[in-house]
Write a structure and sequence with these properties.
It is built from 1 helix and 2 strands; from the N terminus they run ββα. The protein is an alpha+beta fold and 59 residues long. 19% of the residues lie in helices and 10% in strands. The protein has a two-stranded antiparallel ribbon. The chain has a domain of 36 residues. Bound molecules: zinc ion.
Length: 59
């Protein structure tokens, strides 16, 4: 009887970025496509940014 592998943590996918395709790049943390380049771009997707903000807030 083998031990089942732990299920990967289910994490929601960030919404697809609403920007020019040329400004889309992989999130530096979860590799999901996000608005990474250009005006308003961020190397982190909205979900990772929210996690970071919550972490910084001490949650
Ligand atoms: Zn991310």
């Amino acid at each position: 009887m083998s031990t089942p592998a732990p299920a990967p943590v289910a994490r929601p996918k960030p919404p697809l970025p609403e920007c020019a395709p040329s400004q889309v790049g992989p999130c530096s943390k979860c590799q999901q496509p996000c608005h990474r380049y250009g005006s308003g771009g961020n190397p982190l997707c909205v979900l990772c940014r929210r996690e970071l903000e919550e972490w910084q807030a001490g949650k």
